[in-house]
Amino acid sequence: MENFTFTFPATNKIDRFAHVGVVGSGDLEVLMEPSSDLQTEVTIRTGITGFETTWEPLIQRFFTQHDIAAKVKINDFGATPGVVKLRLEQALEVAANE
Prior knowledge:
This protein is an alpha/beta fold. 31% of the residues lie in helices and 39% in strands.
């Protein structure tokens, strides 16, 4: 199991908790919650080792495009970058809608 954390500055807060996806073969879950700090903290837990250099630009690109202050937990079970982006978009949609 590999764990890593990325932190980004942020200015826009989300209002709601979001949980999307499931940890299963080739998928992942994303938990997104409001942060009182003006930053985004992304914690990734994955059973696939050696891919931090793949995760970092994907996560950085997403949170550069979506300036939100949140605590994000990603539990991965071999998801592709496309699935990661899809789940992050879904979580953001849930967290932003009332």
